[in-house]
Amino acid sequence: MTTRQVEHEITVEAPAAAVYRLIAEVENWPRIFPPTIHVDHVERSTGEERIRIWATANGEAKNWTSRRTLDPERLRITFRQEVSTPPVAAMGGAWVIEPLSGDSARIRLLHDYRAVDDDPAGLRWIDEAVDRNSRAELAALKTNVELAHAAEDLTFSFEDTVHITGSAKDAYDFVDEAGLWAERLPHVASVRFTEDTPGLQTLEMDTRAKDGSTHTTKSYRVTFPHHRIAYKQVTLPALMTLHTGLWTFTENESGVTATSQHTVTLDTENIARVLGPDATVADARAYVQGALSANSLATLGHAKDHAEKRR
């Protein structure tokens, strides 16, 4: 069997350890890989893990599983596809991060692969796909790692929680059934909702702000009945360059703890336009958190009523 080995590289303006951490900690992937919606650990032990990745490809959401080995000492992460799709017979590789200075690093992306039946046409197809994807991925990674590293102080997370004396399933169902939100939630003006693949949803909606204005957002959502819904917003309001979220429903002795968690990166270029010339990053942070919390708490409040009525 012929195994092809190829390498691509790019230089980034961020410290090697920070670059390694952004790639190693999969919860960062929605921040640094625009197509990534959500990543979950299937298994993890010291230095070894299986991860499940949900991402968009040509406008469609897909998911697959990969096995990774992490070596923080050598700043190296190896990966191997568990199930390859023809014409690929096997595919793996590694990320290698090399410090160039205190503030810059080289990222090397290595691949090794085989074609089904050693077919020359299949191998050519894989060569082209790996070369095209690696170049695009490294270019995007450079941009987004540099942005993520520079925006660490502009990225923040917060959560809102309500207690429900009902079942997790009923509360979960209310958030899961987002296609009904225009009828069920006063702040939602209209909804376009699809779920072509079970557990993978597209949610586009027009939301009313306190001042009566409406804005349109679009999210991809990944559902884990009946305890978790993760999402990534892909059409964003002006004050954000990133917005990911997680709804969780945890049963306890007295009912359910329902939580809405948000991670946001602020868009500093729009602060003055949206909030006025004297507005600061702190003002933008307070405004965004206030708006998102108001919507989350409204949704959780209606989920609570829904679940408690069904008890």
Describe the model.
The model has no long low-confidence stretch (mean pLDDT 93). The chain starts with a strand and ends with a helix. Helices cover 29% and strands 47% of the residues. It has helices spanning 16-24, 29-32, 120-150, 168-176, 181-184, 271-275, 281-309, and strands at residues 4-12, 36-45, 48-57, 60-71, 76-81, 88-101, 104-115, 155-164, 188-197, 200-208, 214-224, 228-235, 240-252, 255-266. Strand 2 and strand 3 form a beta hairpin. The protein is of the alpha+beta class and 311 residues long. The strands form two sheets. It has a seven-stranded antiparallel sheet with strand order 1-7-6-5-4-3-2. A seven-stranded antiparallel sheet has the order 8-14-13-12-11-10-9. It is built from seven helices and 14 strands. It is globular, with a radius of gyration of 22 Å.
Task: Give a brief rundown of this model.
With 311 residues, this protein is of the alpha+beta class. The chain contains 7 helices and 14 strands.
SSE map:
Elements: E1 4-12, H1 16-24, H2 29-32, E2 36-45, E3 48-57, E4 60-71, E5 76-81, E6 88-101, E7 104-115, H3 120-150, E8 155-164, H4 168-176, H5 181-184, E9 188-197, E10 200-208, E11 214-224, E12 228-235, E13 240-252, E14 255-266, H6 271-275, H7 281-309
Antiparallel strand pairs: 1-7, 2-3, 3-4, 4-5, 5-6, 6-7, 8-14, 9-10, 10-11, 11-12, 12-13, 13-14
In percent terms, what proportion of residues is strand?
A: over 45%
Distance between the termini: 61 Å
Name the poorly predicted regions.
Answer: none
Write out the strand line-up for the largest beta sheet, numbering strands in chain order. 1-7-6-5-4-3-2
* Overall shape: globular
Number of helices: 7
* Main β-sheet description: 7 strands, antiparallel
Question: What is the CA-based Rg, rounded?
Answer: 22 Å
**Number of beta strands:** 14
Classification by helices and strands:
alpha+beta
- What are the secondary-structure elements, in order, as H or E? EHHEEEEEEHEHHEEEEEEHH
Helical percentage:
25-40%
Mean pLDDT: 93
